[in-house]
Amino acid sequence: MSAPPRAWETVLQSIELDLLSGRLRPGDRLPPERALAVELGVGRSSVREAIRVLEVLGLLRTSAGSGPGAGAIIVALPGGGMSALMRLQVAARGFPVADVVKTRLVLEASVVTELAEASARADSTMVASASLRPNLRAPVQLLGAMDSPALTEAEFLALDAEFHLALAEASGNQVVTATMAGLRSAIEGYARAGATSLASWADTSTRLRAEHRAIVAAIEAGDAPAARSLVHDHIAGYYAETHQAHHRPARTADASGYPVAR
Amino acid sequence: MSAPPRAWETVLQSIELDLLSGRLRPGDRLPPERALAVELGVGRSSVREAIRVLEVLGLLRTSAGSGPGAGAIIVALPGGGMSALMRLQVAARGFPVADVVKTRLVLEASVVTELAEASARADSTMVASASLRPNLRAPVQLLGAMDSPALTEAEFLALDAEFHLALAEASGNQVVTATMAGLRSAIEGYARAGATSLASWADTSTRLRAEHRAIVAAIEAGDAPAARSLVHDHIAGYYAETHQAHHRPARTADASGYPVAR
DNA sequence: GGTGGGATGTGGTCTGACCACATGCTAGCG
DNA sequence: CGCTAGCATGTGGTCAGACCACATCCCACC
For residues B29 and B27, what is the distance between their CA atoms, to the nearest angstrom? Predict the structure, then answer.
């Protein structure tokens, strides 16, 4: 009837079931490839293909050698896998840059809203306000790093992307954090490509620095609407500035721009 | 210095570069595995591992046989890959269900806002309003399918998840659509798990049907704030109803429910 | 008791072989 | 001359076996 499952899919499914049932948990080690192969009745190469997939997806980490710490270990770090997926999809024209930017706007607006609201809650609480207050140490530190005048454009933009990712991390939502991590390389890509069309990089980077500080200030003040609008303008502003007219036609050989005869 | 790249990583990188440079585009066929292997100076199994990864990520589709249509073909369909990633991460406890729900709230609120605004724009435009108006045929059709009284809970919830995904598709944002597609199986999972704790499935499903219709109506009326709040209440309401008290302890052996002595 | 080197177990890779399947060509038949 | 059955070919899917590099562990030797 339906397509017979390929051998590596059997392996993948078996591991997934073990995860769902709790037989495998983060920190556990997978059985050796050779053992899995005989246990599931498949060849070792099929086991390896499944493990490779899980590794790229961020589910596990492999290392050679012997003893504890070696072998395939469940880690469940979604960032890497999401990042690879987004990067490759953008490379294969699966994800238009405009959609990446729109998604950024939505996610980051939500992130700063949550952070600002958490700050406000912490302010209105007497006790333990330090523990309720979101931890902005990482983003603030990146703010400082971005002040260095010796930075190249690429270095600055890398720190910029990291700053936005650090905000997402601070919000504590792991799905959003992983998605932002995935978007990150795509973001860096379009930011760098667009930077060449700027009138003055010095002016723009100064503006970006100020906008970052304003966003953090709004979060710490617990002003969610302000944080939301600041982050929206920050992202949309840069994108509009760098990608206004040139939508890169680059379709096929027939990119002459002339109307087709027919 | 840094770790030497593993053979399959070289293959992956080579294909990624071909995608970025435009040497490979959607619809193209990859060279045969054996040819790639000799070209890159690696074994065929390493090529296969890289191809497997790309396949799971939704970058390409493989099929045996000969002639056009066979082989590995670039497709760039992000849904499948995202779905596998999210499903496995949830299975491995990488993504808490609460974060999945929060992310749903953010993304779906944005989706219906955009749809409603597009509707409003279409209303205020004289010409070609039909083409500007978002295409809600697919979600509306699912609404009809969900009316069937013969549906089991699982079937209803599957249609429900599909309805929400169809809304995302209608919004046209491919990144959001792919993310929702990824969230979909996780959503179905928690929805089904929670359904067992409902007082009356008949009542709840009737309410869900009505809420769906109200959301579509608000979109078609171009009322973005209403659509936003309706979809928020719809999702948050069901989640609260089904996951209020029991955070599924199921941690380890000590799931007795008794307070620990200490 | 300390230490160095081999034994062991693991992933990483390659080679070669065979199978299943889809296509395309060709020889043979009507 | 045209059609069709069946073989040739090219592709992915899988397996088995071998070897390497590496990390650890253990034991004999000093």
Answer: 7
User: Domains in chain A, start-ordered, CATH in brackets?
Assistant: 7-76 (1.10.10.10), 80-242 (1.20.120.530)
| Chain B closest-CA separation from residue A203 CA (Å) | 31
**Residue B213 structure tokens:** 């219709």
CA gap A54, B91 in Å, rounded: 12
Provide the pairing of β-strand A71-74 with B60-63.
Answer: unpaired
The torsion angle over the Cα atoms of residues B222, B224, B230 and B234, rounded to 10 degrees, is 100
Given a contact cutoff of 8 angstroms between Cβ atoms, the answer to whether B77 and B56 are in contact is no
Judged on CB neighbours under 10 Å (0-12, 13-18, 19+), A69 is: exposed
The per-residue pLDDT for range B159-192, each reduced to its tens digit, is 999 999 999 999 999 999 999 999 988 888 888 8
Comparing A26-35, A63-72, A120-129, A225-234, the range with the smallest average pLDDT is A120-129
Whole-number Å distance between alpha carbons of A167 and A216: 9
A92-121: average pLDDT: 94
Residue A122, H or E segment: helix A97-124
B44 touches strand D (CB under 7 A): yes
Q: What DSSP character marks residue A146? A: T
* Contact call for residues B58 and B77 (beta carbons, < 8 A): yes
Please tell me the distance from the alpha carbon of residue B217 to that of residue A258, in angstroms, as a whole number: 44
Q: Helix, strand, or coil here: B42?
A: coil
Reference A97, options A235, A260, A261; nearest CA is A235
Give the A:B interface size as CB pairs under 8 Å.
146
Does residue B13 belong to the interface with chain A, where contact is any CB pair within 8 Å? no
Cβ-contact B29, A26 below 8 angstroms: no
DSSP state of A28: -
Beta bridge partners of residue A61, listed in sequence order: A73
What pLDDT does B3 receive?
A: 74
